[in-house]
Design a protein that fits this description.
Elements lengths: L11 H19 L8 H14 L4 E10 L21 E11 L2 E11 L3 H24 L3 H15 L2 E2 L6 E2 L25 E8 L6 E7 L3 H4 L7
Antiparallel strand pairs: 1-2, 2-3, 4-6, 5-6, 6-7
Length: 228
């Protein structure tokens, strides 16, 4: 099985465009996250933003986690009573399709006076950057990348979520190619096909952070971060 197989309509430029448009959608949703909002309310806001940005379809439902729910994985149910407090943390995880190509992005934000939450969000971004740089510089396998991520998270003082292993993207639907998890890939992942997911949590307190993006060449990687 070729874990990096793509469909006939796959186009690397369209993949990059889907990534950039997905980040624009995420930051538009971010601007609408206000204290008092719940996760279901936030998903309704996200649906409005999707329509405004011309999202073709979703390849996974939006995941928006607030407060203590930020420690949960996408398979775990949120506490429905949680709402965004004045000094709080939340993350947004989107799986969108533009022009038949998939985008998958996620980031964490702190609001108000919450330095500990801000530090957690920044740590997830920093850890993602270190792992992605190791992939570019050293050509590690997917499995080795997640071993490295776990070691670095521990050294940074955060609990690493080992259930999150990254995955394939491609022309929709990527699942037809059965690429599997990045964290089980024995070879070096190719640029523009694999999503690196990072989820960490405070070792004792009920909050965490999430960051994900496509593993891409350095020049393309610099295009996204201006609004983060």
């Amino acid at each position: 099985m070729n874990r990096e197989a793509v469909g006939r309509r796959y186009d690397a430029a369209l993949m990059q465009a889907a990534r950039e448009r997905s980040w624009a959608v995420l930051h538009d949703i971010r601007q609408r996250m206000q204290p008092g909002i719940g996760e279901e309310d936030a998903k309704a806001v996200a649906a409005e933003v999707f329509a405004q940005h011309g999202v073709e379809r979703l390849w996974h439902p939006p995941i928006i986690r607030i407060g203590a729910n930020t420690t949960k994985t996408y398979r775990q149910r949120s506490n429905p009573d949680v709402r965004l407090a004045d000094n709080d943390i939340y993350f947004i995880d989107l799986g969108l399709v533009f022009d038949g190509h998939e985008g998958d992005v996620g980031d964490t934000f702190a609001i108000g006076n919450a330095p500990q939450h801000q530090a957690c969000a920044e740590a997830a971004r920093t850890l993602f950057g270190e792992v992605a740089r190791t992939w570019r510089d050293d050509g590690l396998s997917g499995r080795a990348l997640y071993d490295f991520a776990s070691e670095r998270a521990q050294a940074m003082g955060w609990r690493f979520n080992h259930a999150i292993k990254g995955h394939r993207l491609g022309d929709y639907p990527h699942s037809v190619h059965k690429g599997g998890d990045l964290g089980t890939l024995e070879g070096t992942p190719s640029a523009g096909l694999w999503v690196l997911e990072i989820q960490i949590a405070h070792p004792t307190e009920p909050y965490g952070a999430f960051f994900e993006d496509l593993l891409i060449a350095p020049r393309a990687a610099s295009l996204k971060r201006s609004s983060a």
